[in-house]
Amino acid sequence: MSVSFEDIRASTVYKLAKASWLLENNGPNGELGHESAQKFSTKIVSNIYRKLESDEDHEINLESLKYLKCLECYLWPNLSEESTDDHIVSIAILSTQNEEAWSKLTEPNRLDYKN
């Protein structure tokens, strides 16, 4: 199954991203901006984890989370010693599904997480 941009924009993951870490960019091509739209929330992380573990729309959820840069823009920057199991497992799932993101995250000085 191929996931289209329309599938991603119609997904519940897109709605979650837009409320959490995704801001619409007013760029010339209508590209999406990835910035923190609101403070980090463990409830949002739990929702992300449920989407990753769900059998319903699994491929759309996974591809949406990858495309919307959930790992790079929301999960990884908010990793701390107090992170929940849902947070850590979500990072593990997304990093094994996205080699490009993982290589960027493991660049020197990127592994120093903030408390």
Automatic annotation (TrEMBL):
Gene source species: Sugiyamaella lignohabitans
Domain RNA helicase aquarius N-terminal positions: 15-97
InterPro entries associated with the record: Aquarius_N
Protein name: RNA helicase aquarius N-terminal domain-containing protein
Highest taxon above the source species: Eukaryota
